[in-house]
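User: Can you help me understand a structure? I only have the sequence.
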Amino acid sequence: MSEEPQQPRIIVDEDWKNRVQAEKETLSQKQSQEAAPPRPESPPQRGLPPPDLIFIASTMYMQTLVALGLIPNPVTGKATVQLQQAQHAIDTLDVLQRKTDGNRTGEESEAIEHMLHELRLAYITVRDRPLPPADTPKASG
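Assistant: Let's start by predicting it. Here is the structure, written out as tokens:
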């Protein structure tokens, strides 16, 4: 008796389309997760101030000091006066103060009032100071 070599049998699986589709979806999800930036699951980095009203007001305060030329612009490293930008920042901080009236803590109210007072005085001081003399060519004679 000789045994015939067994030929592979073909098994027809009716559910193969569903499995292929599920594998494609799983692969697509993995690829989109890898392409998407990771979502932070941990708290904010250390050293960052809490996101609160005083932080927002302080940001406006610092922008105004830069516009008044009282501190150097962090991008250029130069102190330049931009009165229109400074006035806009002061007005924006004033709007923030008015719109949050009745919803601030005592500490927040005091901090914003103090910032506005200092910025308004600084604005007037910078606006009213005499301009440095322009370089004039010397008359030769």
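Now, to help you interpret it: Residues 18 and 24 are 10 Å apart (CA to CA). Residues 53-128 form one domain. Let me know which part you'd like to focus on.
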